């Protein structure tokens, strides 16, 4: 598209240069240098215009979208409170014997599903 336009523009500039220089008086019309100057100026104008139009154009990338940060950051949820009685207290004996059927009150250990003995906490 641009090359066609450049060729058309240079042809028009050539014709314009020839017609401008050929409008001289009849006494000077015989001098061929005026036609040469018109042709040269038309070619120069066409070359300048053609090179300007044939340059690659920079296309900016689309703007990136970054979501806005939240207005506030919510506070972390509080840690759950788990009640466990102190070891070797009467409440500890009741808690562990109710929770684990394999609880041994003499040692404080119970048999876990993995087959290991663990201390009741």
TrEMBL record:
<keyword id="KW-1003">Cell membrane</keyword>
<keyword id="KW-0732">Signal</keyword>
<comment type="similarity">
    <text>Belongs to the BA14k family.</text>
</comment>
<dbReference type="Pfam" id="PF07886">
    <property type="entry name" value="BA14K"/>
</dbReference>
<keyword id="KW-0472">Membrane</keyword>
<protein>
    <recommendedName>
        <fullName>Lectin-like protein BA14k</fullName>
    </recommendedName>
</protein>
<dbReference type="InterPro" id="IPR012413">
    <property type="entry name" value="BA14K"/>
</dbReference>
<feature type="signal peptide">
    <location>
        <begin position="1"/>
        <end position="24"/>
    </location>
</feature>
<comment type="function">
    <text>Has immunoglobulin-binding and hemagglutination properties, and can bind to mannose. Essential for virulence. May be involved in LPS biosynthesis or polysaccharide transport.</text>
</comment>
<keyword id="KW-0430">Lectin</keyword>
<dbReference type="GO" id="GO:0030246">
    <property type="term" value="F:carbohydrate binding"/>
</dbReference>
<dbReference type="GO" id="GO:0016020">
    <property type="term" value="C:membrane"/>
</dbReference>
């Amino acid at each position: 598209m641009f090359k066609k336009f450049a060729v058309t523009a240079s042809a028009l500039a050539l014709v314009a240069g020839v017609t401008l220089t050929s409008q001289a008086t009849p006494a000077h019309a015989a001098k061929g240098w005026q036609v040469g100057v018109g042709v040269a100026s038309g070619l120069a104008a066409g070359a300048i215009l053609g090179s300007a139009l044939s340059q690659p154009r920079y296309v900016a990338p689309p703007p990136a979208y970054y979501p806005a940060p939240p207005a506030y950051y919510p506070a972390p949820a509080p840690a759950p409170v788990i009640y466990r009685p102190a070891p070797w207290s009467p409440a500890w004996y009741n808690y562990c014997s109710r929770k684990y059927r394999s609880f041994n009150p003499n040692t404080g250990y119970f048999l876990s599903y993995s087959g290991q003995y663990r201390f009741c906490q």
